[in-house]
Every structure is written in structure tokens, then in C-alpha cells.
Amino acid sequence: MTNASAMLTALGDPTRQSIIDALSREPLAVGELARVLPISRPAVSQHLKVLKDVGLVLDRQEGTRRLYRVDPDALAQVREHLDGFWARSLTAFAQRTRSEEENDDQDDPGDPS
Question: What pTM was estimated for this model as a whole?
């Protein structure tokens, strides 16, 4: 599994998506995230560990608390992966369309076009 695939797998959880959404606005501590999410602080910590393990979230100590933020380089890696998937899909669609048009032209020899 590529790192981008691991990131996408981690983002398959709706709670983790909500955490990424919140952290994309500003760095937050676990307690701050727990206040805006319908889960406990320990559950937030578990989700943050998953996100941190795949590289989507960075943390830093600030006084007595740890602040978490989204890693923009990791999001760029996910974006690049999805852009490649999209480009391959569009290429395959264009090839399929051309192939079907060629088959239609061969099936109708009386067509002057």
C-alpha cells in the first residue's frame, strides 16, 4: 500500500474526516477537538494517532498542551494521487469512446461520414 493509499484508508472514517476538516482551519489540542466532535477525548486521541501514523497530521508541544495540525505536504501527496487516478480514468474513457465510435463506423458501411 502506498503512503497515499494509507492516507485515503485513514480518511475513510467519517470522524477522521471531521478531525482533518477542523484541523485544516487551525491547529487544535485534543480537548478542543473533543468539544466540537461527538466523541470522547480518548477517542479523539486514538483517531489522531491513526492520522499521525499515516502522516496526515503533525503535532507540536506548546506549553502544557500538544497542538495538532494538518500536514499540507501530506494533503498534496493525496491530491497528486487522486489527480493521477482522475487522469487515468479520463484517458480510459476517451479511449473507450474512440473505440466505440470506430466500431459504429465499421458497423454502418453505408454511412458517408
Answer: 0.77
